[in-house]
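User: My instructor asked us to take a sequence, write out its structure as tokens, and then describe one feature of it. I'm not sure where to start. Here is the sequence I was given:
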Amino acid sequence: MVFLTILLGLLPSFLMVGLGGIVKNRLSVNAWQGLDKLNFEILFPALLFVSAASRPIDPSNLFRMAPAVWSILSIGLLLGLTVRRIGPDSFLDFAGAWQTSWRFNSALGLVAVGTLSRANDAQMAVAIGLAVPVANIFAVAALSRGGALGFAASVKRVALNPFLLASIAGVIVGLTGLIIPAPVIAPLQMLAAAAIPIALISVGATMNWRALARLNGFNGAICAIKLLALPAVTLMACLTFNISPAIGSVLVVFAALPTASAAHVLAAGFGANRELVATLVAQSTLLGAVTLPVWIAMAELLL
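Assistant: Let's start with the prediction itself. The structure tokens for your sequence are:
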């Protein structure tokens, strides 16, 4: 019954992804890329800021979540490295694929948290805010090793990430309890409301729906790490250390999220194999539609 309730809660989002697949030919590739850029630079940062700033944040929760979130990313990185021998010969191409073992889909995270009975979007926004800089540092560092981007350019790319800047600003507002005037917050809320629908439709439009047919040993291992191993380790750790149900549920859902839909964009920017990463993104998203509701149900029942 719990699983069915969660599945029904996620169904509208999956239908939005399906809609993107149906209407993908109505817009050009450049138009979809423009929508992704709009979401990355403006809409999703507005959503992260509003989610984090909309209610007071308990500093103790922030300090408890930080090491857990960073540990999840680190475990994903280390587990991904274990499949290096069956990956591409080029380290740069491997690094492009490797990043998908720890990066995460923020849009689905903020959708999924709405199905939890003991958590809210502010807590997920904090988790995302804590994870964005570390996930990007890991990804840029891995890709820089095989690419031509220098250290200064890598640091600049991470530091100016709109998700990072918006998350930090939202967390600061949430921690200080500042009240943003209605005329200022209202347009940000309007932008935030558009972020998830556009992101989900764009994912469906840019996804290769035949990608599951190319699920070889390497791709399958990467997807298993992201969708099965990480949430399993996180759930066991939450039970072992008696983490509060609210924070534990958010951590499990965060760990179970499919990989970031824009991972192939970063890989292409460094000259890595874009098609390999795009295939992994599609596979992770399609398989995640099955595994994510299971982990949400597990978190609801066990935590």
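For the description part of your assignment, you could build on this observation: The chain has one domain: 2-302. Try explaining in your own words what that tells you about the chain.
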